[in-house]
Amino acid sequence: MGSVSLKIGDGTARFKRATLCSSAINILMLFSVITTNLFALYAFNSSPNHRLHNPFHHRNKNISLISEQVSLIIKEIDSSQRKLAQMEKQLLGYDTLDLSRPNLATELKLFLQNHQLPLGKDSRTGITEMVASVGHSCEKSADLLSQYMSYKVSGPCPDDWSLAQKLILKGCEPLPRRRCFAKTVPKPGLTSLPVSLWKSVNDKAVTWSGLGCKNFNCLNSKILSRDCVGCFDLVNGYETQRYVKARSKIEFLMDDVLAMGNGGIRIGFDIGGGSGTFAARMAERNVTVITNTLNVDAPYSEFIATRGLFPLFLSLDHRFPFYDNVFDLVHATSGLDVGGKPEKLEFLMFDIDRVLRAGGLFWLDNFYCSDDEKKRALTRLIERFGYKKLKWVVGEKTDAAWSGKPEIYLSAVLQKPVRI
């Protein structure tokens, strides 16, 4: 069972297509027709002498027998159709949302309603309805989803970005659209490129609701992740040296990596890019980079945008919304580690490979390996893709701000092969 996306206006609609369920129903109906004909053939060809003796009696008896058999077959078909329809709803996931349940937001009911195709059934694909584009796992968080969709139409949206992010992290992605106006936040002190790349961001230029810190001084005093220690300090912190001055052999210089691309690096994708410094350094070199973000404990998305860069609010469980073979470079840090589950990392790596063009570079930057086994597992996974190792360094690094102990890290620059 699958779905088809169609761009209509400014949105994407998902359509149901013919499934194995519908094929099974067609086979069952064909079987019933054949069975009925066999019964009729048997009835009209059995005991001819006896039928001549009492033709009316046996004719009525045969008709009654056929009617009973047809009724049983019709009942069986109806029962099978109901069972198959229920199975299809369960597979669809969000279709199992009971829209008649009490206290469910009206807006959610409106959004989730299926709509008939404006030109009727598509004869080639069998598509008949437009299905609301909403995450499969939203059904598991119906109460939170209803809360998210409870607002005044054409009024201000609730200040609930943290609720939206919670739903995303629970797999409810994409979220349904809403008919309300998002909160407007003034952006004082904005400057043009390239000055904006390294100018301190005003505390009032971002939203602090739902966060523990209420200013950037507070954030810079915290250890947010291995890749973001003081990463919001664009004047006095290490961010001013990042990618242009190496502190250890594990850290590669950006110009050295770009030279490996032989001048073919123009657009890139940064996974877990912190405050956007990687994209900023690339912008200085006329390379456009999109930075994947979530606002976990800090306003990453707004901060990156204020610097004049492109943030993409997306979880790593979501299929990247890009076409195949479009990026010249994909950059990833320790944020690539999705909960330590090898299967999830495999899915993620295959999606990275999908969006990276042949000959493009995959830069694995300071990936934390908790032990040798994890390093070996990651190495085996990377080798399955057949990438050319342009640079590969494994070593220990002591991060005083994080643990203060020597830890194993892997940095590599890999080139995607041409596959035929």
TrEMBL record:
UniProt-annotated location(s): Endomembrane system; Membrane
PANTHER family referenced in this protein's UniProt entry, alphabetically: OS06G0138600 PROTEIN, S-ADENOSYL-L-METHIONINE-DEPENDENT METHYLTRANSFERASE SUPERFAMILY PROTEIN-RELATED
Gene Ontology molecular function terms on file: methyltransferase activity
Protein known as: S-adenosyl-L-methionine-dependent methyltransferase
Similarity annotation: Belongs to the methyltransferase superfamily.
Residue ranges of the TM segments: 24-44
Short name of any one Pfam family annotated for the protein: Methyltransf_29
Signal peptide from the UniProt entry: none
One GO process term, biological-process aspect: methylation
GO cellular component, one term: membrane
Keywords: Glycoprotein, Membrane, Methyltransferase, Signal-anchor, Transferase, Transmembrane, Transmembrane helix
InterPro entries cross-referenced by the UniProt entry: Prob_Methyltransferase (IPR053223), Put_SAM_MeTrfase (IPR004159), SAM-dependent_MTases_sf (IPR029063)
UniProt source species: Hibiscus trionum
Its membrane topology: Single-pass membrane protein; Single-pass type II membrane protein
